[in-house]
Design brief:
By secondary structure, this protein is mainly alpha-helical. The protein folds into two domains: 117 residues, no CATH class; 213 residues, 3-Layer(aba) Sandwich (Rossmann fold). It is 31% helix and 6% strand. The chain contains 15 helices and five strands. Strands 1-3-2 form a three-stranded mixed β-sheet. Strands 4-5 form a two-stranded parallel ribbon. The longest helix has 18 residues. The chain starts with a helix and ends in a 12-residue tail after the last helix.
């Protein structure tokens, strides 16, 4: 597992405490120090770290060990977790490694953190080799013109990245298929199986599947894009100006992380030609307290899309829509997965044509809630 997967996993898990989280079992005789060697071993990269990074990695290892051995007591509820999370300074000068240290030090990860980090890329729900034998119609590789560039990734490989639960009905009873796509360094199964996948599976009109992107979306974004269309929670459509996002040496800092800088050639090309406007109806919900993507406020928010094609776009910052109320509080990048307004907007988008609309939502009711209604009950 690469370092960024560890850091992002820690930051994701911090938003899930108090709700069902994955449970894995370590192999007998698997000691914590051995686990650390696997998680943080970067010798194969040939990239020397600065003394400061080695010291911070050592601090993170020590804090994870304290959680695993009970020296640090984790928070017990999501409400407590969000309250503690709000005490972490919101500054772009902290690296993602420093934020991970803060998260673990404050008890924002469970005592099973070692088990989770050990099994998170091997668990069945995160598989990238799913046996999906049913042929799609039309095929996954569409063409608009004879002169279209060829796809680099074979269709069987693309299909095998989709995890289709055994409960999926393939359109029976007019159920709407929901494709859940993870963020950079987050395994899709661990991200969604314990929240949105369960709630959408229980909904009478929806049927969820998810995409397990090889390498947990840490490879070349251009290749990853063959597998996905849009991310609507804590979106990164314009890149991020956080300079400390990639604090490790270049061979270790994965391509997807390098490519997400605001001024990278890739992001500039992506924004060009109205690429920063939606191609399909889009509901984008985000938080101004995002640790990973900035800016996330005002007209320049990275998650805000234009609508030059007139397809319909809703850009919603929760601190604006629910100003001064619980749902507009301190939600970090991954904690937006449990935000009640985000959930309400997604359900609204499913029930109507076009994007989710605030005017159709009872904001007086939704905004006074701290958590999405399914948290702790699935």
């Amino acid at each position: 597992m690469r370092c960024h997967q560890v850091f992002r996993s820690i930051l994701f898990i911090s938003s899930s405490l108090g709700s069902p989280v994955p449970s894995y079992t370590l192999k007998e005789g698997h000691y914590v120090p051995d686990m650390f060697k696997q998680l943080f071993n970067t010798s194969s990269s040939g990239a020397p770290f600065s003394k400061g990074i080695y010291q911070e990695l050592s601090r993170l290892e020590a804090k994870i060990s304290d959680i695993a051995t009970g020296k640090i007591k984790p928070v017990s509820t999501v409400e407590e977790g969000l309250s503690v999370l709000s005490t972490i300074p919101h500054t772009n000068k902290q690296t993602i490694l420093q934020k991970a240290i803060d998260v673990v030090s404050l008890g924002l990860v469970p005592t099973t953190i070692i088990d989770i980090l050990d099994g998170i890329t091997n668990h069945e729900i995160n598989s990238i080799a799913n046996n999906n034998t049913r042929n799609p119609s039309p095929g996954i590789h569409p063409t608009k013109s004879f002169y279209d560039a060829h796809y680099d990734i074979p269709e069987p490989t693309l299909r095998s990245a989709i995890h289709i639960p055994s409960t999926f009905s393939y359109g029976k009873n007019n159920k709407i298929p929901i494709l859940l796509v993870p963020g950079t360094a987050d395994p899709a199964g661990s991200t969604y199986h314990f929240n949105y996948a369960k709630i959408f599976a229980a909904h009478p009109h929806t049927d969820p599947v998810w995409v397990n992107i090889p390498g947990n979306s840490l490879g070349d974004i251009q290749s990853n894009a063959d597998r996905k269309v849009v991310m609507a929670v804590s979106g990164d459509f314009h890149g991020t100006v956080i300079e400390t996002l990639c604090m490790l040496a270049e061979p270790v800092c994965s391509p997807a992380v390098q490519q997400q800088g605001y001024d990278t050639k890739f992001i500039r090309a992506l924004r060009g030609g109205d690429g920063d406007s939606a191609f399909v109806p889009t509901t984008s919900v985000y938080s101004g307290y995002d640790f990973v993507v900035q800016p996330q406020t005002g007209e320049w928010a990275s998650a805000a899309l234009g609508d030059v094609r007139g397809v319909g776009v809703s850009n919603v910052q929760v601190q604006v829509a629910c100003a001064g109320r619980a749902a507009g509080g301190f939600y970090s990048h991954s904690a937006m997965l449990i935000n009640p307004l985000a959930y309400a907007l997604f359900v609204d988008a499913l029930m109507h044509d076009g994007p989710g609309r605030l005017e159709r939502i009872d904001l007086n009711t939704v905004c006074r809630e701290l958590l999405a209604p399914w948290v702790g009950r699935i």
